[in-house]
């Protein structure tokens, strides 16, 4: 086993930097790099800054040395930010993260189904329409709305209008 003095000497990597401080430095910088690529709230950035701050407190032997280390860390972070902005502005870094093609309805991309073919078709109400409910048209169930009127369950209806996902029905007058 190690004596306490040998263990203390083993923990020092070089010139006063302990293994823990080197690990905190690497983790802090890695978290700041991850913050550039992760969308969201800034958790990685905050944790990275906390790791770097803890590293400075553990490593610095005086206030002056701590301030110099802090300025060094700020310089590293600013350099990383400048490189990130430079490469992302040229499109080299984020090329795989940006959608290069458009998704238009002419190419077959639609966010909603087109229900315009149902106009004029009739069916019956599966639920009361108050004014929203369900109807069956041609063996299919559809969520529909009326033009404001209440229709009881089982009412015969027909489609008068569609707009996006909205299907408007009216009662069949006998």
Helix content: 40-55%
Shape: elongated
Order of helices and strands: HEEHHHEEEEE
Rounded to the nearest angstrom, the radius of gyration is: 33 Å
* Contiguous uncertain segments of 5+ residues: 5-14
Q: What's the total number of strands? A: 7
Number of domains: 2
How far apart are the termini?
98 Å
Structure classification: alpha+beta
State the strand order across the main sheet: 5-4-3-6-7
The number of distinct helices, counting runs of at least 4 residues, comes to 4
In what range is the share of β-strand residues? 15-25%
Biggest sheet statistics: 5 strands, antiparallel
Give an account of the 3D structure.
The termini are far apart. A hairpin with a 2-residue loop joins strand 1 (12-14) and strand 2. The chain is elongated. It has helices at residues 4-11, 19-37, 43-59, 63-89; strands at 12-14, 17-18, 122-125, 132-137, 140-145, 156-163, 166-171. Helix 2 runs antiparallel to helix 3 and helix 3 runs antiparallel to helix 4 (63-89). The chain folds into 2 domains: 4-97, no CATH class; 107-171, Nucleic acid-binding proteins (OB fold (Dihydrolipoamide Acetyltransferase, E2P)), CATH 2.40.50. The protein is an alpha+beta fold. The strands form 2 sheets. Strands 5-4-3-6-7 form a 5-stranded antiparallel β-sheet, with no helix packed on it. Strands 1-2 form a two-stranded antiparallel sheet. It contains 4 helices and 7 strands. The longest helix is centred in the middle third of the chain and has 27 residues, at 63-89. Mean pLDDT is 81; it is low at 5-14.
């Amino acid at each position: 086993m190690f004596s306490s003095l040998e263990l203390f000497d083993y923990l020092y990597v070089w010139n006063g930097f302990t293994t823990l401080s080197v690990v905190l430095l690497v983790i802090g910088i890695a978290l700041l790099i991850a913050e550039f690529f992760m969308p969201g709230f800034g958790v990685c950035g905050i944790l990275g800054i906390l790791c770097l701050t803890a590293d400075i407190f553990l490593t610095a032997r005086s206030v002056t040395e701590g301030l110099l280390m802090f300025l060094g860390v700020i310089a590293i972070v600013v350099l990383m930010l400048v490189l990130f902005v430079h490469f992302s502005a040229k499109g080299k870094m984020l090329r795989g993260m940006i959608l290069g093609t458009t998704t238009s309805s002419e190419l077959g991309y639609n966010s909603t189904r087109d229900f315009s073919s149902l106009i004029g078709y009739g069916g019956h109400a599966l639920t009361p329409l108050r004014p929203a409910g369900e109807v069956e048209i041609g063996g299919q169930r559809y969520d529909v709305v009326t033009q404001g009127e209440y229709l009881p369950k089982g009412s015969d209806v027909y489609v008068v209008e569609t707009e996006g996902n909205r299907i408007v029905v009216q009662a069949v007058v006998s």
